[in-house]
Amino acid sequence: MPLFEYKAKNKYGGSVTGRIDAPSENVAHDILREKELIILTLSEKRTVTLLQSTFGFLKRVPRKQVVLFSRQLAVLISATVPIVQALRILVKQQKNINFKIILSEIADEVDGGARLSQTLGRYPQVFSDFFVHMVRSGETTGKLDETLNYLADQQEKDYDLMSKIKGAMIYPIFIIGVIGVVGVLMMVFVLPKLTEVLKEGGAQLPLSTRIVMGASTFMQKQWWLLVIIVIGIVFAYNAINRSQAGHLKIDMLKMRLPIFGSIFQNIYMVRFSRSLATLLVSGVPLTRSLEITSDIIGNRVYKNLIEETIKEVEAGKSIATVFLKSKAIPIMLPHMMAIGEQTGKLDLILDKISGFYARELETTVENLVSLIQPLILVLMGIAVAVIVMAVLLPMYNLSQAI
User: Fold this and answer.
1) Three-state DSSP state, 388
2) CA–CA separation, 361 vs 99, rounded Å?
3) I need a surface site. Which of 28, 200, 254, 255 has the fewest CB within 10 A?
4) CB 81, CB 60: distance < 8 Å
5) The pairing of beta strand 38-45 with beta strand 3-9
6) Same CATH fold, 143-402 and 58-127?
7) What is the arrangement of strands in the sheet containing 38-45, beginning at the earlier edge strand?
8) Of 165, 167, 183, nearest to 379 (Cα)?
9) Where along the chain do its domains lie?
10) Residue 308 — pLDDT band, cuts 50, 70, 90?
11) For domain 143-402, which architecture applies?
């Protein structure tokens, strides 16, 4: 977890310095404000080791487990089960070892007097900034059971949507992968033996045959060069993605891709509208809700737009001002947000918008899968035709000449 160093003033005017663990700078701000400190400076001091960064993925908790935890905790608290006892019950039911350890530690800390939201914030790899703020809002308003139920509902919707998208793409990805593996095996093991017969026959080989033979030879003898190229591309992508300017360009490119661009845009629209609606319903102030949403939306283009919107809202302007000027935002969204703002029902409008874009996303993915399936068949036909033209036809001609 990131470590933040701070300088602040307490309520008596005295200077205070120290360090604090928090999943993000925003959470660190909130924790310090709860301690009645006036923050002067706050900077991150990273303490992640190479071993943690390399093997941290082994300790990931499946998202489905977090969704199930939210629902079960909501049900137990709604049944007036004390929160520590509820956590202990969930620890016993948990089968994922890593998550079981984390929940046990959370239960111990809450039993020791810590707030649930503060404890959850110490595990950012499991509980997002959004999740922590929702729980904190429920604690503040005294409606933790209602907040957890609403959070569980929204998480289930997000999980179901992403599961449908992944499920729809499994078949085409599997088929493309199989075609790729079969193609490589043929190029490396099968075609070289067939082309040897052509070489020994001394026949004049057509261009297609020479191209296939050259590709086969390259994959046999210079395969290491392909590996270096792939590794180089991965490293270059990561290096570009780590810089703000590079990350912004990559995110812009995602939305400009044919077909997939609309899928990405709909994903971001669902994520934005659903997250913002959930936070507003839970009583989180608008500007704070926008800050949290900007951190979880997952696209630098939209993050910049939301940050500009925060400034406009703080200046007393409409939440839709910046969105109306941007070509990256569908025109319906800012107009509906403006209506919601004027009527005082922004959370309801955003919830309706998220449902609309979720249905649009499902339809787009289904259409894409329907398009990919015949496209795969066409590609397989082309591959077979190339092999026939490059190998079998010259062999047939050679046999006729003998």
Assistant:
1) helix
2) 31
3) 200
4) no
5) antiparallel
6) yes
7) 15-21, 3-9, 38-45
8) 183
9) 3-47, 58-127, 143-402
10) very high
11) Up-down Bundle (1.20)
Chain centroid to Cα 174, Å, comes to: 21
Q: How far, CA to CA in Å, does 180 sit from each of 174, 185, 209? A: 10, 9, 20
Report which of residues 304 and 371 the model is more confident about: 304
The pTM for the full model equals 0.67
- Give 170-233 as a DSSP string: HHHHHHHHHHHHHHHHIIIIIHHHHHHHHHHHTPPPPHHHHHHHHHHHHHHHSHHHHHHHHHHH
Q: Which two tokens stand for residue 272?
A: 């934005």
The SS3 call for residue 387 is helix
Integer Cα distance of 233 and 252 in angstroms: 19
311-343: per-residue pLDDT in tens? 999 998 999 999 998 888 899 999 999 999 999
The CATH classification number of 58-127 equals: 1.20.81.30
Tell me: the pLDDT tens digits for 382-391? 877 877 777 7
Cβ–Cβ < 8 Å for 41, 47: no
